[in-house]
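for the writeup, i need someone to sanity check this before i put it in the appendix. the sequnce is what the collaborator sent (i think, or maybe the updated version? ugh). structure was predicted straight from it, no edits. if anything looks off just tell me and ill rerun, i have time this weekend
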Amino acid sequence: MKIILLLISLPLFLPLSGQSQKSHKLSAFHGNVYQMPVYSEAKGFSEGIGEFDSIGHIILPELNFRPAYPDEHFPTYDLKDRFAFVLNANLTIKTDTCYRFTLVSDDGSLLWINDSLSIDNGGMHKWKIGRDTIKLAKGKYNLRLWYYNAVGPCGLAFKVDEIDPKYCLTSISKKAEAICLSFDEDDFTLDAEHREKIDSTLKEWKPEGSFSISITGYADAVGSNQYNDVLSLRRAEQVGNYLSQTISISSDALEVAGKGEVENIEKGCRTTRSVVVEFKND
């Protein structure tokens, strides 16, 4: 028998106010509920959902569930361990600007925007946060979210915020040469080791013709969101100032942003207290 469940959750994220509230509209999430195979707890979504058994459909007006045992969130649905949601929603953007996506879960979760993976918060773990910031134009976007609970308490929360464009960065080509500069906690000073790494890369890269450089600062999870936003931007600005003094580059070709607190960074970074610099010949 197919079960359809409509749930309204208690607020974990406070509602947005002012212009941020008017800049976008998010529909309810809806999709399938799955029972995961035995011994699949640690695998999560790593092998897809082909072996999952669909047990019904679910509609969630918002994703706002604090970590608790499943019967507290889904009292009329027989969900215990090893269950998963594959959900869809529509996001309508009304203002061209920068948006921050925040996805928190216990255990794993993944978010796609128009079939492009935005947040990978996957794996078996306790309450863990993942974020992404993206410049979006007016229009409608499809959100696809996968979530699973392995054992014990489950939790899932999601929100979209409009943020200052200086904390956002348009994605640069994956073909770009990239370096990672690591910083000490609460520090944004560009030291001799940072400058040497930048200089060495500039010698190998040899910018020719039309080129661009993107500089993205990051922070760890210590401190408030506002503090980490500012700290990550200051780190990026230090790198941008050095590059402006080192090579001849127009302001249009140099893009500087701070993405604040993140859980993981690629590009070979050993820590989230980093700045990623990407060099691209157009």
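DSSP finds four helices and 16 strands in the chain. The chain has two domains: 4-163, 177-281.
thx in advance!!
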